[in-house]
Amino acid sequence: MNTGSDRETNESASSEPAVEHVHVSKAPAFIKARKTLHLSWQVGVFIVGLAVIGAGIAMLVLPGPGWVAIFAGLAIWATEFAWAHLVLRWTKRKVTEAAQKALDPKVRRRNIILTTAGLVIAAALIGFYLWKYGLVLPWDLKDQ
């Protein structure tokens, strides 16, 4: 008798061995058909992903969306390499966990208090420096 419960299907499914998801290349079929062409495709994907990640690392210190480029390069690699797919999944999970933690009211309140305290201390130090030495712009310096 079907009671609407899926317990019977879960019990029968648990007796079978779990099938792990196998990473499949996203290359077109005609490329996957030839081993050397597929290897060349993978080398190309690796180089393009490496270039995007390298640009992302440069953008961490230069103007630009550094982390976005790094994750985009990792996503490019994940189209061909199982290890990159696993790293990308782990990264997505950790970013999601961090976002959920940041939305916690206690953590948010603590961050606001620490930011405010840091800004007050910085303003006090800048105020003391200006009171002690004044504001001298570089083009107003007198020859020594």
What does this structure look like?
The chain is mainly α. Helix content is 72%, strand content 0%. The protein contains six helices and no strands. It has helices at 7-15, 29-32, 35-61, 66-78, 82-102, 105-133. α3 packs antiparallel against α4 and α4 (66-78) packs antiparallel against α5. The longest helix has 29 residues, at 105-133. It is elongated and about 75 Å long. The chain starts with 6 loop residues before the first helix and ends in an 11-residue tail after the last helix. Mean pLDDT is 82; it is low at 1-14.
- In angstroms, what is the radius of gyration? 27 Å
Biggest β-sheet, characterized?
Answer: none
Unreliable stretches (pLDDT < 50, length at least 5) are: 1-14
Helix percentage range: over 70%
* Strand-residue proportion: under 5%
Give me the strand/helix succession: HHHHHH
User: What is the helix tally?
Assistant: 6
The mean pLDDT is 82
Shape: elongated
Total number of beta strands: 0
Distance between the termini: 99 Å
Oligomer: single chain
User: In terms of structural class, how would the helical and strand content be classed?
Assistant: mainly alpha
SSE diagram, text form:
Layout: H1 7-15, H2 29-32, H3 35-61, H4 66-78, H5 82-102, H6 105-133
List keywords for this structure.
144 residues, mainly alpha
In brief:
The chain is built from six helices and no strands. The chain has 144 residues and is mainly α.
